[in-house]
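Researcher: Next entry in the queue.
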Amino acid sequence: MPFRLRPRVLSPRRPPLRLAATLGLSLTLAACGGGSKTTVTVLPTGTAADCRALASASLTGLLISEASVQEAASGYPVHCLTRGTTLDGRVRFELRNPLSTGWNGRLIVQGTGAFAGQLDPAFGLYRSSESPGLLAQGYAVLSNDTGHTGAQNFETYFLPLLDASWALNHPQAEQDFADRGTAAATQAGQTLLRELFRRSRLRTYYVGCSGAGGQGMRMAERAETLFDGFVIGDPTLAMARDMQRVQWNLRAVTAYPLSLPKLRVLSAGVMQHCDPKDGATDGIVSDPSRCDFDITTLACPAGTDRADCLTTNEQLAAALIYSGPRNSANEAVAPGLPLTGSEDCGGFCDGGIDGFKRFAEGWPWWFLGGPTSYLDDPAAPAPLPTGRSFGAVVFDQYVRFLGSETDDASRRWFTHDAIGDPSLVARGAALYDIQRSDFSSFRTNGKRILMYSGWADALISPLELINFQLKVAAASGGFVETRDFFRLFLVPGMQHCEGGRALDDFDAVDALVRWVENNEVPNTLRARSRWNSAFPGRERDLCPYPEVSTYVGSGSVDDPASFRCTLPGS
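Model: Structure for this entry, 570 residues:
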């Protein structure tokens, strides 16, 4: 049975449609918009000649614009590069695969972050690992633009993936972005590989972080039959609530100004109090859920404002961000952010080698203003230094073009209240948020989800992901049973997808593949410091939630043998 995608009527009250997708041995692809089938011309063994022949192949539903052999370079092997379109020409894709025996029989679907809209090179790079791109490890890698091209303009830092204006009064493009684009591109990549290598079976894994992590979970929710497993990093599982949290935090630091120097005072206070709770004082808060720091201990003497303390207003700003958004009835709308001791990491984090410090997306990056002065926005309210923080950019794009039944390009984070008026995010919630909680079919069918998040992520609260895992466990047979197919790793100190005061180099893909294919359960993930980290040479095991890394009482804090994964309180 070919892969089919049915468009649906968009409604904030209707849960997302699970996409019908069946993997079979048939080398066919459904013509987009109809039910016709076309058998793809059979090619033999994945040689250079076979690769080039794809350029002239007649493939209904697919249009191949390039099929060429790329010579070995930059650590990547000789490989076949295929570019084309699918879904009535709306979705651009790129497939790179090693030739002949160099291919390991696996396809990596490489997600596109934020609002997508760009066709990234399909090398299989992912942000939680410094290892060579997955193409260099024998994988075929597929990327796609999800069905649209983002604009490059002043308003979005000239980054296409931050632009959502393509969705203005364009529901088809929004549905393609939500699920159809990636699903159709995945089917196209699978079909081409089966053609090229004459294989009836290949393994397919999704890898993505941030918006690409949310994209991956929508595939798990709506097109699970296309995939064997998923590496899901810092995902936008509930984009509507994420945007409400972003606006809440922007308004908190606008009403109660919190400067970067004072943010450093806050971070230092949290670190000093909560770092030792895992048994070692090592510059990392291993378990923020146990951090009980009282920010009022940093209070300035009444009527003063010194560099080493927090005023009442500065304490209020921090308290609002930690507590999370609440509506007019004082009801919680979304989880807040945990206390991590890394709140001040933004742009570049303290520590590491001068001039090459680890990039980080902390509170300054998301709430306190844009990273460069040339993006000043005079319309934004004081005291934000630019009004163009990344949080302001993504919220504005979402609430204008993606969140509501009615698009309005004039909406701004400081003029339209997404907490007081949930209709501003209701349509987006129906399209992009994960509604499904019962994933027990993953256990039955041998599929796996390996999810990770930075504890210090200032955009996607890790508390949101913990709540999601608990919800899945409740609907899928219990927490112990759910760990058979779904594990969540929370990375102490790590910011959004990477960076921060953290050990943020770990190989989640290899762990997933071994879990799916060899049933080697990932009880830990070995994490390492990067070459320009604040902790050079340090290694430590990451623990699956709810376990936490705990010092055994002796040994170097840089040695993984000095820590073990334990349940809190044990």
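Model: The two ends are 51 Å apart (CA to CA).
Researcher: Noted, moving on.
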